[in-house]
Amino acid sequence: MNALGLDIEAAVLTAVTSVDDPEYPGVSIVDLGLLEHVEVRNGIVGIGLIPTFSGCPALAMIAADVETAVLAVDGVDEVSVSWLYSPAWSPERLSQRGKEALKDKFTVAVQIGTRTPDCPLCGGPMVEQSLFGPSRCRSVHRCDACTETVEVMRG
């Protein structure tokens, strides 16, 4: 048990959950579905993360933030963060809290499967404008109802 009364695995998971995605401050990497596994053995922690896409420029920053957060846990002596490429990340990995935070804080819709999501601003239907967004995992849509341009997170 550590100072908070948590076993070390629970404390490590809490630490990883405290790490936000750099593009979405206030949205945990756990809620975005990046965490695949945590292994704890005798003070040595292994963390497996899944990138939204392999060329994401924030991978090194996220890994460093996870390492810093986990090293602060009582009883952790060493941390290893690995980027895994299997299974592949998909929007289905997002938690409900993650989907709601993307919608409410960043007006980003989440596409699950092939169905175009509703507008996060007004709930109206959207039309894809471009497959190319600010990153490979996002595209740009326009809402037919409110005419706003909206980013859509997709797999």
Describe, in plain words, how this protein is organized in 3D.
The chain has 155 residues and is an alpha/beta fold. It has two domains: 8-83, GMP Synthetase, Chain A, domain 3; 107-153, no CATH class. Helices cover 22% and strands 29% of the residues. It has three helices and nine strands. A four-stranded mixed beta sheet has the order 6-9-8-7. A three-stranded mixed beta sheet has the order 3-4-5, covered by helices on one side. A hairpin with a 5-residue loop joins strand 8 (138-143) and strand 9. The longest helix has 13 residues, at 59-71. The N and C termini lie far apart (39 Å). The model has no long low-confidence stretch (mean pLDDT 90).
Strand order of the largest sheet: 6-9-8-7
Tell me, what's the shape?
elongated
Tell me roughly what share of residues is in helical segments.
Answer: 10-25%
**Secondary-structure class:** alpha/beta
Low-confidence stretches: none
Strand tally, please?
9
- N-to-C SSE string, H for helix and E for strand: HEEEEHEHEEEE
How confident is the prediction overall: mean pLDDT? Answer: 90
Give the CATH level 1 class of the largest domain.
Answer: Alpha Beta
How much of the residues is beta strand, in percent?
Answer: 25-35%
Radius of gyration: 17 Å
Largest beta-sheet details? 4 strands, mixed
Write a short abstract of this structure:
This protein is α/β, with parallel strands linked by helices. Helix content is 22%, strand content 29%.
How are the SSEs placed, and which strands pair?
Layout: H1 8-17, E1 20-21, E2 24-28, E3 35-41, E4 44-49, H2 59-71, E5 78-83, H3 96-106, E6 108-110, E7 126-130, E8 138-143, E9 149-153
Parallel strand pairs: 4-5, 6-9
Antiparallel strand pairs: 1-2, 3-4, 7-8, 8-9
